[in-house]
């Protein structure tokens, strides 16, 4: 049977060898000299060979046996390997290293994630990959375990029973149109007022499906999934669309956002994980950080 080494015993051996004495090694280890002697004796019993020559009363130095000289670099190698793994796992547990992958709907990825990640990562060496897409794509990435967790909305929580959803943000649906559009001067809109105009559907239009405004979707001829393309079409005056407030580019000087008051449709966005899977330490730490930072 192969010997099973204890890291503590290996450290004692290296200290005695390098410091040339049991007494100084005991001081370094904050142990008594008999305790160090017992530790070395147990290590020698496991190896089946003596590590140190019998002490000469005329010298205070402790000398290695030929076997001990052969074992010393290997003991150092074992200690170094142990310490590297221990440090890596400690850094991982403290979310200071590793690779974190998350997917988010664009509205949260652009509005909230930059500041959250900046404050969370700090000066750590944590690698982060962020994928932004619509809620359906984010949920699919979570399901396929392409990411540690997602930030999205659940359109039907019963159909997504294998996922765990923690709500974090909430906004409401409004109408987006060019500033010169007839609807732009309104302070709030009824869905019936949108009927005369060309409606461009997008990934968030599903939020209207279970509302009284659902007929608008059936009569819509156009669908654009990419937000950059959608904004370009709106700016060009191609039509109007509905968007959640957080998805509206507030720095855009060409477009207006008018709240839709009938129906009043709210969107909940939160953290989505698989119910039966644990998160990595960095992912769990980021989830905890987001929850601690969420709006009150």
TrEMBL record:
CDD domains: PBP2_LTTR_like_4 (cd08440). Keywords: DNA-binding, Transcription, Transcription regulation. SUPFAM superfamilies: Periplasmic binding protein-like II, Winged helix' DNA-binding domain. Pfam families: HTH_1 (PF00126), LysR_substrate (PF03466). Residues 5-62 form the HTH lysR-type domain. It comes from the Bacteria. Belongs to the LysR transcriptional regulatory family. PANTHER family: HTH-TYPE TRANSCRIPTIONAL REGULATOR YBHD, NITROGEN ASSIMILATION TRANSCRIPTIONAL ACTIVATOR-RELATED. This is LysR family transcriptional regulator PycR. It comes from Zobellella aerophila. The lineage of its organism: Bacteria, Pseudomonadati, Pseudomonadota, Gammaproteobacteria, Aeromonadales.
């Amino acid at each position: 049977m192969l010997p099973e080494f204890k890291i503590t015993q290996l450290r004692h051996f290296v200290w005695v060898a390098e410091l040339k004495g049991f007494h100084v090694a005991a001081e370094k280890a904050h142990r008594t000299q008999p305790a160090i002697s017992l530790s070395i004796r147990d290590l020698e019993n496991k190896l089946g060979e003596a590590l140190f020559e019998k002490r000469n009363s005329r010298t205070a130095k402790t000398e290695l046996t030929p076997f001990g000289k052969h074992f010393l670099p290997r003991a150092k190698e074992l200690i170094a390997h142990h310490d590297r793994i221990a440090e890596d796992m400690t850094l991982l547990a403290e979310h200071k290293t590793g690779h974190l992958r998350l997917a988010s709907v664009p509205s949260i990825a652009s509005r909230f994630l930059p500041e959250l990640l900046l404050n969370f990562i700090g000066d750590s060496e944590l690698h982060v990959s962020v994928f932004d897409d619509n809620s359906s794509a984010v949920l699919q990435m979570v399901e396929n375990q392409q990411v540690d967790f997602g930030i999205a909305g659940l359109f039907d929580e019963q159909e997504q029973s294998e996922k765990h959803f923690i709500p974090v943000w909430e906004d409401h649906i409004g109408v987006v149109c060019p500033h010169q559009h007839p609807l732009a001067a309104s302070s709030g809109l009824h869905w019936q007022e949108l009927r005369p105009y060309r409606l461009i559907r997008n990934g968030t239009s599903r939020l209207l499906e279970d509302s009284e405004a659902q007929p608008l979707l059936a009569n819509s001829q156009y669908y654009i999934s990419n937000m950059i393309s959608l904004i370009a079409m709106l700016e060009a005056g191609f039509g109007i669309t509905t968007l959640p407030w957080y998805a509206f580019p507030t720095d855009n000087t060409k477009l207006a956002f008018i709240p839709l008051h009938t129906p009043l449709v709210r969107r909940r966005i939160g953290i989505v994980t698989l119910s039966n899977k644990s998160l990595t330490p960095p992912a769990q730490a980021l989830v905890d950080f987001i929850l601690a930072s969420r709006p009150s």
